[in-house]
Design goal:
Layout lengths: L11 E4 L4 E2 L3 E4 L2 E4 L3 E6 L11 E6 L18 E2 L7 E10 L3 E12 L10 E12 L13 H4 L5 E12 L9 E3 L7 E7 L6 E4 L9 E2 L4 E3 L6 E3 L7
Parallel strand pairs: 2-6, 7-10, 10-13
Antiparallel strand pairs: 1-4, 3-4, 5-6, 8-9, 8-11, 9-10, 11-12, 11-13, 11-14, 15-16, 16-17
Length: 238
């Protein structure tokens, strides 16, 4: 498989039989995945180490260089005020966790759920958009047993799907809070998100020691330095 123009966290890049995992990637189950958003590259080895396999690395894209460096994809990968729609896959960073919900700052709108091209496309938001994963939307089964604190931590990057949104009237409009299923550009909104599918959940997490972890199963990440594990609602790699 060829390397994509843009890699998103959790995206499969190649097999460890062909590449060596470098900065911006992680190794899991003999495959190499992206641990951040950016441009992947395969660096040719200069010695006979690692059986002369190229090293996969990812260079993080700055907002100013996102449109300039992606060629024909630049119209879809850019710094814009695009808003997500119901059914869109989004990437976001956990900003707060309570017993009832997870607050998320949405930073990338990937696109409609189910499209194969989601692996290489996305729209970087100009500003974080507020989203919420409610306790009942964390997983599809045994919802009453969900412990939000075990599934997410502040700073985690998650993949989720927009299922609705709650719009708040602008300050001049003294009316009650309204609930919508379609987007109103004139309102400030909190988007309701779900992670209740295998491919949704945490795609990038750091341990309590500050090390980037990698997933080892559907509910645990491991710190590669200390070997300690931490529980999360792990997203199945794409």
């Amino acid at each position: 498989m060829s390397l994509p123009t843009l890699a998103l966290p959790g995206q499969l890049l190649g097999s460890s039989s062909k590449y060596v995992s470098g900065p911006g990637t992680y190794l899991h189950a003999s495959n190499i995945y992206a641990s951040l958003s950016g441009q992947p590259a395969a660096t040719t080895p200069t010695s006979k180490s690692h059986l002369n396999k190229p090293t996969l690395t990812i260079t993080r894209l700055s907002s100013s260089s996102a449109t300039a460096s992606l060629g024909p994809v630049s119209e879809r990968i850019n710094n814009t005020n695009a808003l997500p729609k119901v059914g869109d896959v989004v990437l976001g960073r956990v900003t707060r966790c309570t017993m009832k919900q997870v607050n998320v700052g949405i930073v990338v709108v990937v696109g409609a759920e189910g499209k194969e091209e989601l692996r290489v496309e996305g729209t970087v938001c100009a500003h974080e958009i507020q989203g919420v994963v409610r306790r009942e939307d964390v997983r599809a089964t045994e919802k009453e047993k969900v412990d939000v604190g075990e599934g997410f931590r502040v700073g985690d990057v998650i993949r989720a799907v927009v299922v609705g949104f709650k719009a708040f009237p602008m300050p001049a409009m003294r009316t009650k809070v309204r609930y919508f299923t379609q987007i109103s550009l004139g309102d400030q909104s909190n988007y309701y998100l779900t992670t209740a599918k295998n491919e949704l959940g945490v795609i990038l997490a750091k341990s309590e020691n500050g090390n980037t972890m990698y997933p080892i199963n559907w509910k645990d990440f491991m710190d590669p330095v200390t070997g300690e594990t931490e529980t999360r609602k792990v997203a199945k790699p794409l």
